[in-house]
Amino acid sequence: MVAENIDPLLESLARVVRLHRRAAGLSQEELAHNIGRSMRYISLIESRRHQPSLDTLKRLSDGLELTLSQLIIEVEEDAKQHALTKGN
């Protein structure tokens, strides 16, 4: 099986969005509805298959009750943490 070559920031974004969505008690469908996107779109972000636009990042942060800068900081921190655990 060939390992996927996925951007570490996309991996981190997926983890952070999923973590906050679940902590807020939201389904993918509820979050999608709240930010004007489809459930499939949220699923693609959480499965690291789609790189969202800046507009979508802002909508996600609002939907998760975070500031855009908080979302980005958490993604960066997650990426650093996982790079350390992978030995990168």
TrEMBL record:
Keywords from the named record: DNA-binding
Domain called HTH cro/C1-type: residue spans: 17-71
Keyword Nucleotidyltransferase listed: no
Source organism superkingdom: Bacteria
Gene3D superfamilies (alphabetical): lambda repressor-like DNA-binding domains
InterPro entries given in the database record: Cro/C1-type_HTH, Lambda_DNA-bd_dom_sf, TransReg_Diox_bact_type
SUPFAM superfamilies: lambda repressor-like DNA-binding domains
Protein name (Swiss-Prot/TrEMBL): HTH cro/C1-type domain-containing protein
Natural source organism: Falsihalocynthiibacter arcticus
